[in-house]
Design a protein that fits this description.
By secondary structure, this protein is α/β, with parallel strands linked by helices. Helices cover about 35% and strands about 25% of the residues. It has helices spanning about 45-55, 75, 80-85, 95-105, 170-185, 200-225, 230-240, 245-265; strands at about 1-5, 10-15, 25-30, 35-40, 60-65, 90, 115, 120-125, 125-130, 140-145, 150-155, 190, 265-270, 280. It has a 7-stranded mixed β-sheet, with helices on one face. It has a 5-stranded mixed β-sheet with strand order 8-9-10-11-12, with no helix packed on it. Helix 5 packs antiparallel against helix 6 and helix 7 crosses helix 8 (about 245-265). The relative contact order is 0.12. It comes from Alicyclobacillus ferrooxydans.
């Protein structure tokens, strides 16, 4: 257990996820006799039971809400177990509601109480703000605890590795706005979905946005040398450094960048050969 503030603790729980991460963070927001549980990705009941015992160390507050930052399995597959033991409803943004239902059907047949997340939660003496911030998924949320200067950002920042954004759920323009929201949140500490807490939320968001924008410049420069499809770009960008398990997310993140660059008019997409993958090239260079 790692304490982020007077009212927020982080639990780094081993979870099947993407390298370089091998854990997904659960957070417990607590005040007085009440608590909010945020995310749980593992289905290992021993690990989940160990996590539940942390509540005793916190004075045994009653979990009144289980919040999913987004629907992805490495953040939600443990939620049915948490609900079964706390009787608290699971909350998710309406844009991720159907996808979460589908994800949880893969791990349980039990009847689940899932509701649309409100704009805020009020615990005893503590208000928790909920912001709809699409980017990683359409229904991604941030949870802000203004009195503590803490923002829980799901998969919009990472304490280790990077963040992937991929269509159809992910949108790079939305993601840049999400990073800007973190910078303007007036919160100093960010709790990411994976890895250690970030003690300068604004700087972490700025660095990640600059990294993504730098990737776009790299893509434009590579395409100026000649047309490429997604597979060719991924090979040129990552060389031999990409783990096989992460190839599909690299593909989708590059696609998200390409879609944005097409919208901006900086590159063109060529779908003229329907038997081949679309090719991309710098604007004005297709004949």
């Amino acid at each position: 257990m790692h304490r982020l503030s007077d009212h927020v603790v982080q639990l780094r729980i081993p979870t099947p996820t993407l390298p370089p991460s091998f854990e997904t963070n659960t957070y417990i927001i607590h005040s007085g006799s009440q608590a909010i549980w945020v995310d749980a990705g593992t289905t290992d009941t021993n690990l989940l039971q160990q996590a539940l015992t942390i509540l005793i160390q916190l004075g045994n507050p009653r979990v009144v809400a289980i919040a999913a930052t987004h629907y992805h399995r490495d953040h939600t597959h443990g939620l049915p177990y948490i609900q079964a033991h706390t009787k608290a409803p699971i909350y998710v943004h309406e844009a991720d509601y159907k996808a979460l239902r589908a994800e949880l059907r893969a791990v349980t047949n039990q009847e689940l109480e899932i509701a649309t997340i409100p704009a805020a939660f009020q615990l005893e003496g503590l208000r928790v703000e909920v912001d709809h911030v699409p980017g990683h998924t359409r229904g991604h949320i941030h949870l802000r605890i203004p009195t503590d200067g803490v923002i829980l950002v799901g998969d919009h920042l990472a304490g280790d590795g990077s963040v992937w954004i991929g269509p159809p759920d992910g949108n790079m323009d939305d993601y840049y706005e999400a990073l800007d929201q973190i910078r303007s949140s007036n919160c100093s500490i960010a709790g990411p979905g994976h890895g250690q807490a970030l003690n300068d939320a604004s700087e972490a968001a700025l660095q990640l946005k600059q990294r993504r924008l730098g990737r776009e410049e790299q893509i434009v420069q590579l395409l100026a040398k000649g047309p490429k499809d997604v597979d060719g770009l991924v090979k040129d960008i990552y060389q031999d450094t990409l783990p096989a398990a992460a190839k599909w997310v690299a593909d989708r993140t590059v696609i998200a960048h390409l879609e944005r660059l097409v919208r901006l008019g900086r590159i063109l997409e060529d779908k003229s050969n329907l038997s081949e993958a679309p090719r991309y090239k710098a604007a004005g260079e297709f004949s």
